[in-house]
Design brief:
Length: 166
């Protein structure tokens, strides 16, 4: 199975927080590993059979609440920050294009939620990396049925990676 290309852009310097990640390289390794594993595990499922040898490309943008609030307002008409926003490439499934899409993560919200759920900040960020990647692969939680499917695959992946979540 091919390795997927993961591009990581640091929009906010808050991400280089010595308590969570020692360096930009440690952030990159963490995101790279989790997104690779999420894509690989999904591509093993029957619904992704035709994609199993496709090398995909994903962009991660590491931002803060201010940045995510702007995006959330512009694209979802919600005037508040959020933890993760995924923008899937609509042509991925139609044309088997390599580019899966972009994932924006808010350092501030992930850290607040980790505290709220009494889990490690790195685990919360890891959960959002997996969650955002699943959105790029067509998973959603708009209906109860879709939500159940997404939670099932998400929890399976998180458990296999040793990530604690609420």
């Amino acid at each position: 199975m091919p390795n997927h290309r993961i591009n990581i852009f640091l929009e906010s310097k808050k991400w280089v927080d010595k308590k969570i990640f020692k360096s930009k390289e440690s952030i990159d390794k963490f995101i790279y590993h989790l997104s690779q594993e999420t894509i690989k595990k999904c591509f093993l499922q029957p619904r992704f059979k035709r994609f199993k040898n496709l090398k995909t490309n994903v962009n991660f943008i590491l931002a803060d609440d201010k940045f995510l609030k702007k995006l959330n307002t512009a694209f979802l008409n919600k005037k508040k920050p959020t933890n993760v926003l995924s923008f899937p490439n609509e042509n991925f499934f139609k044309n088997k294009e390599n580019f899966l899409g972009e994932i924006f993560l808010s350092y501030d919200t992930c850290k607040k939620e980790a505290k709220k759920f009494k889990i490690d900040s790195k685990d919360r960020i890891g959960h959002m990396i997996v969650h955002g990647t699943l959105h790029l692969l067509g998973y959603d939680h708009k209906t109860k049925v879709d939500e159940k499917k997404m939670i099932y695959i998400e929890s399976k992946i998180l458990n296999s990676l040793g990530i604690n979540y609420y």
